[in-house]
Specification:
With 528 residues, the chain is an alpha/beta fold. The chain has helices at 14-25, 66-71, 104-112, 116-136, 151-166, 168-180, 183-190, 194-205, 217-223, 244-256, 299-305, 314-321, 365-376, 422-440, 444-447, 456-463, 515-527, and strands at 4-5, 7-10, 30-33, 46-49, 52-54, 81-83, 88-91, 97-100, 228-229, 232-233, 237-239, 260-262, 267-273, 276-282, 287-290, 293-295, 329-336, 358-361, 385-389, 404-411, 448-454, 499-501. It folds into three domains: 4-43 and 62-81 and 242-324 and 469-527, 3-Layer(bba) Sandwich (FAD/NAD(P)-binding domain); 93-234, no CATH class; 325-463, Guanine Nucleotide Dissociation Inhibitor, domain 2. Helix 7 packs antiparallel against helix 8 (194-205). It is globular and about 65 Å long. Bound molecules: flavin-adenine dinucleotide. Flavin-adenine dinucleotide (FAD) binds next to helix 1 and helix 16.
């Protein structure tokens, strides 16, 4: 058995697979080692119940970089986007609803039901985001400079500064607020309708342990508009066959270039000698050697669990220990025998436009704040914010005819519960979510065939993500760009020569984007 490779990728998340594919394409002999029996990390499709193929974790796509789709010929390997139109449906307790995008005329009419002023402002708000995105988006596939590094870094920072100047004073100020500020004051300034603001605000908090009034949430909101679907900016879509098809198509590309992928291969230790990486040892003791290792695991797992502290500088270890892994998101995957029959727009058992996009249970911004308050004090939210998606509305490959999969992404529910445990609370929390959905869509509870409830500690166990943080570490400004995962190490390299980070723990962070993997591969190839 060959045990020596040019490069070993620790973890077959979609980012690790991207790194593997680019390295293999460049002629490297590559081995990918994945601890689970399935590749993809948080970007997977699993047949949880006979005939039901579920995107167990990530469920919608927009962020996957178009250059990766092109370079790796992912469409040839089975990747296909299914754009969602409408993209969202928000029913409200008073019986009204708001349906949005990407059809601009429809969105205008829908928003005008609540406020004609907001309907006029919405395209201007989108244009503002686009201006800022035009400045920030190219950075996603760039290696961040080190503000404390040598002259070359200063030159790169200067170039960034020049790009920022080109935004002009007004857009520049807005960009700074988006990067550092809270979503709520921005939305309150732009719009008057709570229904519209609450619908947009859901994107500002998803995956974050923060309400929309907290600094940092504006960037989370923005992070969600930086992608595209089949070339249309800001549009999210389903992936035919579920999110696992993202990972599977990247893996197929990697294999076509010669990469080898092994599952059920959990790395127990990263081997280091004299400050240089040597290889890895699996939990069962098998060793593989390479002078380049890229870790797709998060920074906590990579440096604090798989390495000996003596191989890392103390300051670096302290910086890794400072990463915020708090999380308050629960995923509930449900198989149902009919689509939810929303009181605000009944469809009598049929699939309608209201089922195409994200269906929000979130009446206003205060509702989100109160849900967060519960979590802040160690309780799951009595009235949680729920995002439902039903990919089967557009994809008939996922469930038996007439049946559907509902993905419920719910906030807030903290990792650490006060005076109780998730073992005890998991089903109580899911029951509360189902009761809530029943109020908005009568008959929902009797439509449920199966359910899987995944609170943060279970996410940690299943996907190896510390604290159940879906982004491999929070996306606060102090943990972004030149500071992700730690100042001085945002260029995918680590204090150990030959060891790289290639997953969401590195710039530009979480989401099914592939950019971390792409950037890491570029730097590894640059090092030769
Ligand atoms: C519930 C949930 C919902 C989400 N929804 C969305 C969404 O809809 N859209 C979106 O864009 N993003 C979403 N995200 C975020 C997104 O899925 C992640 O940020 C992204 O998939 C991270 O990819 P990655 O390849 O960097 O890391 P991961 O997916 O975390 O992959 C890391 C891999 O390393 C493996 N590994 C770890 N330790 C070892 C070891 N010791 N030995 C071998 N292998 C190891 C893991 O098993 C895993 O396969 C969601 C995440 C979660 C958890």
């Amino acid at each position: 058995m060959t045990t020596t490779y040019d490069a070993i990728i620790l973890g077959a998340g979609h980012n690790g697979l991207v790194t593997a594919a680019y390295l293999a394409k460049a002629g490297y002999k590559v081995l990918v080692l994945e601890r689970r029996d399935i590749i993809g990390g948080c970007c997977i499709t699993e047949e949880l119940w006979p005939g039901f193929k579920v995107s167990t974790a990530a469920y919608v796509n927009s962020l996957l970089r178009p250059e990766i789709i092109r370079d790796l010929e992912l469409k040839k390997h089975g990747f296909e986007m299914l754009p969602r139109s409408p993209s969202s449906f928000s029913p409200f307790p008073d019986g009204r609803y708001l349906m949005m995008g990407p059809d601009k005329d429809m969105t205008h009419k829908e928003i005008a039901k609540f406020s004609t002023k907001d309907a006029e402002n919405y395209p201007k708000y989108e244009a503002m985001l686009t201006r800022v995105a035009d400045f920030l988006e190219p950075m996603l596939t760039q290696t961040p400079p080190d503000p404390f590094g040598g002259l070359w870094n200063l030159w790169k920072l200067g170039k960034l500064g020049m790009g920022f100047r080109r935004l002009g004073r007004d857009a520049g100020s807005e960009a700074v607020e988006i990067l550092t500020g809270a979503a709520r004051p921005i939305l309150d300034r732009w719009f008057e309708s709570e229904e519209l603001k609450a619908t947009i605000a859901t994107d500002a908090v998803i995956g974050a342990f923060a309400p929309p009034s907290h600094p940092g949430t504006a960037y989370v909101l923005f992070h969600h508009v930086m992608g595209e679907c089949n070339g249309v900016r800001g549009v999210w879509g389903y992936v035919r066959g579920g999110m696992g098809m993202v990972s599977n198509s990247i893996a197929a590309a990697a294999k076509s270039y010669g990469a080898e992928i092994r599952t059920n291969a959990e790395v127990g230790q990263i081997l280091v000698k004299d400050g240089r990486v040597q290889g890895v040892a699996l939990k069962d003791g098998t060793e593989f050697h390479a002078k380049r290792i890229a870790s797709n695991a998060d920074a906590h797992v990579t440096f604090l669990k798989l390495m000996d502290a003596k191989d890392l500088p103390e300051g670096f270890i302290s910086a890794i220990k400072r990463i915020d892994y708090s999380s308050a998101t629960v995923k509930i995957n449900v198989a149902i025998d009919r689509p939810p029959n929303w009181k605000a727009l009944p469809s009598d058992g049929k699939v309608g436009p209201q089922h195409h996009g994200t269906m929000h249970v979130c009446p206003d911004q205060d509702y989100i704040e109160r849900a967060f308050d519960d979590a802040k004090y160690g309780r799951w939210a009595r009235d949680p914010m729920i995002e439902c998606t039903m990919a089967t509305a557009l994809d008939d490959t996922l469930a038996p005819p007439g049946k559907h999969i509902l993905s419920m992404f719910v906030q807030y529910a903290p990792y650490h519960l006060k005076d109780t445990t998730w073992e005890v609370e998991k089903d109580r929390f899911a029951d509360r979510c189902f009761d809530l959905l029943e109020e908005y869509a009568p008959g929902f509870k009797s439509s449920v065939l199966h359910r899987m409830v995944i609170p943060p500690p279970d996410m940690e166990k299943m996907w190896g993500i510390t604290g159940g943080n879906i982004m491999q570490g929070s996306m606060n400004l102090h943990s972004m760009f030149s500071f992700r995962p730690a100042a001085g190490y945002a260029n995918y390299r680590t204090p150990v020569k030959g060891l790289y980070l290639c997953g969401a723990a590195a710039h530009p962070g979480g989401g099914v984007m592939g950019a971390c993997g792409l950037n890491a591969a570029r730097e590894m190839i640059r090092d030769g």
